[in-house]
Amino acid sequence: MGPVTIAARRRSLFWRIHFWAALIASPFAFIAVSTGMLYIFTPQIEAALYGQLERVAPQEARLPLDAAVEAARKAAPAGFEVLAVTPPARAGDAVRVGFGPPRPGAGAHAGHGEAAAATAAPAARPGQGGERITVFVDPYRGQVLGSQRDQDRFSEWARRLHSRLLQGESLRWMIELAASWMLVMLLTGLYLWWPRPGQPALPRSGARGRAGWKQWHAFIGVLLGVLSLAMVLTGITWSKYAGENVRALRDWSGQASPQAPARLHSMPQGQQLSYQQAWDRTRALVPDAPPQLTPPRGPHGVWRAGSADRRHPASRFDLVLNAYDGQVLYRAGWDDQTAFGKATAVGIPFHRGELGVWNQLLLFVFAAGVLFSLVSGWVMFFQRRRAGALGLPKLLPGAWRAAPPVGVVIGIGMCALMPLLAWSAAAVIAIEAALHWRQRRA
């Protein structure tokens, strides 16, 4: 058996696997990419939808942050407690105060007036029924601009549409299945495109019909390969089944992000820091990153602060302060992150288009390219398929035995990491075995 024969058998095998990957992934990938294109422009859409809540006319001086929180409490549902406060990052920003239903023991350990809030507003308010809400307050006038259930925001709706088609957890597996096979499609497509003698890497002008579709399908797929790899891998990190394996592997390898110790607490000594004092203390420690503040729960609670701006991953931080004197109990920033933590801190906001307009435009071009690859692949399939035939790419005899060892190892590793890929691959192998048995009997 000469090397050309082995190369031909391997190529037929990769064509076959590439076809199966496209067959399985295409419907779900088309939905994921289409809904993702909508999600890309979330900042602009939300600015148009919620500008009257989020933006204010700047004045000479802001009121203390506590005044805004107190105004928000009066507009919150009865009994709801403050979960987080996002002070204004810019002069025209509103204060955002997040509320949620009382947690176990909240009545006994409520801090900063949560217990009194139970009688501050009537029960029939937005957010009743165990849902979190955000109240927006003008930081200059102390005026409540409105409130909103977190689940009603466009970004939340678009996220649920993109990741689970608004169907809760029941359809989440479909997007994970698509991401798994898109990775297979990407790797096999790269192998098939890899230039061979007499085959140029760049598209040739003048090609028509299936040949024209084929060269542009391959070229655009490879051109977007790095982006595709980044998008698929970051999507897999927060998937349900493969994501659990990724996180387990991360923890096993010591790449988990640093976490504040669970039992950090404050010893009562006078009055707890006010919201304004906690904000001032946080800005003194981390002056270049807009914070989100989480108030202490009860006399032994602590102030917690973290970055409220996803556009600058290197500015992310976690801070825990003594509730009474502002002493730093825990602090972690970019330099304390693991390599995996840094990769996800950049990769996930990039996947969501949160790093700026350049990020959004790049993702839009990427999504358009993926849609072209999906559509052109099916155009070529129907151009090749003969009437009455399945249209499967021809598999040369001995193709499976010609699989390169490196490819086998990569395939086994991917299946071990991505359970849905393993189960669906087993189904594909069973179908292939049935087709082979039928062909031998014919």
TrEMBL record:
<feature type="transmembrane region" description="Helical">
    <location>
        <begin position="402"/>
        <end position="431"/>
    </location>
</feature>
<feature type="transmembrane region" description="Helical">
    <location>
        <begin position="19"/>
        <end position="41"/>
    </location>
</feature>
<dbReference type="InterPro" id="IPR005625">
    <property type="entry name" value="PepSY-ass_TM"/>
</dbReference>
<dbReference type="InterPro" id="IPR016174">
    <property type="entry name" value="Di-haem_cyt_TM"/>
</dbReference>
<feature type="transmembrane region" description="Helical">
    <location>
        <begin position="216"/>
        <end position="238"/>
    </location>
</feature>
<feature type="region of interest" description="Disordered">
    <location>
        <begin position="102"/>
        <end position="127"/>
    </location>
</feature>
<keyword id="KW-0812">Transmembrane</keyword>
<keyword id="KW-1133">Transmembrane helix</keyword>
<protein>
    <submittedName>
        <fullName>PepSY-associated TM helix domain-containing protein</fullName>
    </submittedName>
</protein>
<keyword id="KW-0472">Membrane</keyword>
<feature type="transmembrane region" description="Helical">
    <location>
        <begin position="361"/>
        <end position="382"/>
    </location>
</feature>
<dbReference type="Pfam" id="PF03929">
    <property type="entry name" value="PepSY_TM"/>
</dbReference>
<feature type="transmembrane region" description="Helical">
    <location>
        <begin position="173"/>
        <end position="194"/>
    </location>
</feature>
<feature type="compositionally biased region" description="Low complexity">
    <location>
        <begin position="105"/>
        <end position="126"/>
    </location>
</feature>
